[in-house]
Fold this sequence. Notes:
- With 141 residues, the protein is mainly alpha-helical.
- It has a domain of 75 residues: Winged helix-like DNA-binding domain superfamily/Winged helix DNA-binding domain (Arc Repressor Mutant, subunit A), CATH 1.10.10.
- Helices cover 65% and strands 10% of the residues.
- It is built from eight helices and three strands.
- Strands 1-3-2 form a three-stranded antiparallel β-sheet.
- A hairpin with a 2-residue loop joins strand 2 and strand 3.
- It is elongated and about 70 Å long.
- The N and C termini lie far apart (82 Å).
Amino acid sequence: MVRRSIFDKIFREMQQIHFRLDDLERSLSRLNAPATLEMSEAKLISLSDHLRKTYMTVASVGECDANRVSNLTRRCRALESNYLNQLCRMGWLNKNKVSKKTLFRLAADMKASKRLVGQPVVSPNISLSPLETNFRKYFSE
């Protein structure tokens, strides 16, 4: 009887370790590779010191929430949330709401993906003059 209870405790502990490892693997797989910071120093100097520290933290991590930034900068979460929202209003960062968390990332990442999606697809071989003259012929279907 004593032996069985010891094995049960060991088994439960191993299950807990297994669940913790699964959580760690999920959180590590969700992390994106940090974006490379390609910005002139003159633009960074235009930011005030407190906002620059927050911006550089987000740039080094990639995508994070206010709690993570506050842990890295050693400032309170409410203050970092305020700074992150200021940077969003200024156009330096973009925010994305995922369930209850608000994640912040560099605005350059989002602009690059939108630029690829929003570009018109026009073949250089197509002449637009026949389309202009015979509009009904091409779009009568």
